[in-house]
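FW: tagging you since you asked about this chain on Friday. Here's the raw sequence from the shared folder, copied in full. Didn't touch anything.
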Amino acid sequence: MRTGRSFLQALFEVTARAVFKTYFRLVHRIRVEGRENLPRSFDKLIIISNHASLLDGIILWTYLDMDIKILVNRGRARELLLRPFMQNRYTVQIDTLNPYSLKGIIDEVNRGTPLLVFPEGRVTKTGNLMKIYEGTGFVAYKTDAAILPAHLGNTYETIFAKKPGGRKIFAPISLTIGSVRPAIDVSRFQPHDRKREAARVIYDILCEMFYEAHYRPSTLGREFIRICRKTGGKTLYKDTTGTEVSYRKALLGGLVLGRKLSVHGGKKTGVLLPNLVATALVIMGLEIYRKVPVLLNYSSGQKSLRHAMELADLEVVVTSRAFLERVKIDPGLFVNRKVIYLEDLRAGIRAGDRLAAMMKILFPGRLARIVPEEHREPAVILFTSGSEGVPKGVCLSHENIIANIWQSLSRVDVGADDYFLNALPIFHSFGLTIGVFLPLFTGARSFLYISPLHYRIVPEIAYEEGCTILMGTNVFLNGYSRKAHPYDFYSMRYIFCGAEALSEAVFERYAKVFGIRVMSGYGVTECAPIVCMNSALEYKYGTVGKVLPGMQYKVVPVGGIDSKEGHVGRLLVKGRNLMVGYLKNEAANHKYLVEDDGWYDTGDIVEVDESGFVKIVGRLKRFSKIGGEMISLTAVEEALAGIFGERRDVAVMAVADEQKGERLVLVTNTRDADLKKVREVLREKGYSDLTFPRQIIYMKELPKLGTGKPDYVKLKELIAAPE
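HL: got it, structure written out here
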């Protein structure tokens, strides 16, 4: 640790810090957290932080209260206006065009100088993290220095940032100081990869700091009130009925609907509605008045709907007469339950209701407060797809959803200028969390569309509205790409694929025709839902990205599957975004919460490479043991995707076999499917004879779930049924 300051230098620094602290406290109402993490002693230390304004170095120098030096760009340091601030005893200059200048930086750290580095190398132009320069990683692993991470919040809103507009003189800011991380160890990598991998570690640390700095215990209702009051007249939700609401009007509508629905009995309220603005406001209104929305899957059939309502002990269901008629659901399904029709709810709204809601906007009182541990109570109840059995009711808390939102935003630069196009049904966690809640937290907009199956209309909406973010499954994205004009996605910044593997054909079509790189992700309802995701800053084709910050994971070996030295196995995860538990399923909850100590077994077999990128091998239940070997049915399906044409479906199933225990059959809607061609394709792709289907079963239409994935439960019943 560097010492030896003169008395005058020490006096100057004490005075300067006092002046700066006064300014930051009075002008920016600065909030500093994590002071207890400041190391009392150290040998070698590198301090890293995001970089969103010209104030950042001064803030960190002021509040870290160390004799630090700040790494600055030599070219910027020579600029006339910046010269007094960047050419002094508190800075170390680096020439980014001269790799040998890193040697001087390494020497400085090795002498014990605590060095402040902004790994992005520049002030951000997006408000989020930008690319991390490998030089920081090189210095970190060469010096074996400990890492002290920090996060500066909201400095992008100040007049000292590069934000295009909306900067404020009195923008509030925050500083979050993280715990000291040990020296970066990249010895397991080849020498030429170490600099890159060290930079990745630094990026991961900064993402973790973003998440920890932003997550705060709260409820969705409280956040809805807070954000809508703050954001005001900007559009929040829009749909195809022509309904469009600003944040302010959404809050008004949510308060009116929530108050009317709150008088009906029961803590839980069923919601059976499509993707509409009214649906979002019903959900938000229930959250405000501390009711738990139970989102019912109308695509699952009446038997599954009845099961879901009984499982949740629903007394009240909110729906629409027009919608029930359109999806052909018999109102008799709701016998012995109170049905509230949206048409009647709207007709019953009076001027007094609006006036009362306006008063609540001004004086929300207890509606905007939370009691201790309320954030851990159920916020919504969703149902799993039921692709492998009876759908389970998943209880997600406020903490689960809010944590997952900030985990996701730590990796993707979503901002107030973004416009989501959400055609994924809200009764699935992906459509709910990312299509309804996440835009609210970022000040963005969301267009809610009623069906992901309208392949011509969805791209047209993207074009007409100028949407910037689209989510879909591989099946839906494939459908859009076939019907879309090459210019329909002109405004898209990101397209995310989840729920199933992204096929090579779909990836290439979007890249070649639309000029967009589709990002793969992975999630499960129980995790609210996102577990892994690729992003523009960290991307690896063929994987679903890395596990999000704030989550732990482990890979457990599975008998019969090569573990590849611990890199392949069942994926177990843990974190704030993990569900409260299953509804009325004591056996599953006991295993998850007690036997597995809170580790959730995803049931997916994954392969995790040395950099942390996750590749989905397949569902454990979608493996078949043939000739003593475990065969992934999902992998065989992916290898055969599109061999009979883009519009033809294939599903690989295992059936009983007297000799080998099980054998594979191929189910397809292609009449002229040929086993010889199937085997040739698999052989060319390096698959063994054990993976070859022994039979082809023709089916005019394969049963599918609402996500577009095959319904394997129903498919198994159909192929097992006698002809």
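FW: The longest strand covers residues 600-608.
HL: agreed, and Residues 191-214 form the longest helix (24 residues).
FW: great, closing this out.
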